[in-house]
Amino acid sequence: MNKLLTLLLAFFPITSFAGQDFEPADQNPITLNTAKALSKMDRENEIAKSEDAKRKTIEYYEKRKQRSVDVKRDFERLILRNWDVPTGSMGKTVKVLIELNDDGTVKSVTFDSSDPVFNESIKQAIENSAPFPLPNDYVLRQMSKKMTSIFKAR
Q: For this UniProt entry, which residues form the secretion signal (predicted)?
């Protein structure tokens, strides 16, 4: 037992603490280094979380964008199936702005073509295709209610 006490006193002499004031924890180099390391880890974790959130947001909007493209393509296919192209219109194109109501019915149709027969044929195809099935997702639904398409008579 005396040997153990002698050994302990050799490594931790009582006089080494006598008359010394201990540094506050916020000035202790070991505590400061530990705090800095933890702070750095916290910052790195926050950055990683932020990057992950950004990635998920981008993925979400990319999926929504792709879904919007799919909805528009489906609407265009439906219109093309219902389009009775007037004779003598082969090769003509028309740009159409279609606005839909909340229930998928046609609110308005605007053309850039000056051919009234051609315009009426595409308008009739659009009306015959309604009501259009709108997505359940609110933002996607709002996006789908207004679309511009170009149709070419074949």
A: 1-18
